[in-house]
Design goal:
By secondary structure, this protein is of the alpha/beta class. The chain contains seven helices and five strands; from the N terminus they run βαβαβαβαβααα.
Amino acid sequence: MQAKSAKVLAVDDRDENLVALTAVLDALPVEVVAVTSGQAALKELLNDEFALILLDVIMPGMDGFETAQHIKGRARTRDVPIIFLTAAGDAGDDAYRGYAAGAVDYLTKPFDPWLLRAKVSVFVDLHRREAEVRRRAELLRRALPSDENVPALLNRQVGQVEAAVARLRAKDAELPLSDVETRLDELRTTVRALLS
């Protein structure tokens, strides 16, 4: 069995919907944290990191739109993707309000479980990759001497790798360099993360 690698926050005022969501996502390497209100969701977000939020629109008290506005208004949670799940139908105004509130998607119930799993998988994978970039950036920060001009040093190293790739291409145009270029792209991403 795969280890649960990321957390997904499921927010719905109906327990049966939360049970169904948890069952649909059980095959994925995620831990579903289920809560029944917007207030409970905001509390969970204070204590933990989530790869994705599945948020019901129609809830008593704080509805999904208001909950999303609070989530997007906090520096710690503003980048967590939100997928709205609603039984309200295909109303264009509600979908527009969902996207305006910061949602990455808006699905109506009943939703296709395969489609939902595919969407969740994409965002969990993105979360995992971002975490890996942050981890590599931190390792690089620790490894570099503190008195070095880090941006200049990293840019110089990227330039050296790019020059080496160009020399290899010049020697043999048929040489498969996709792995080297992939590593170079990873290095560029890490450098950007360090410099931000």
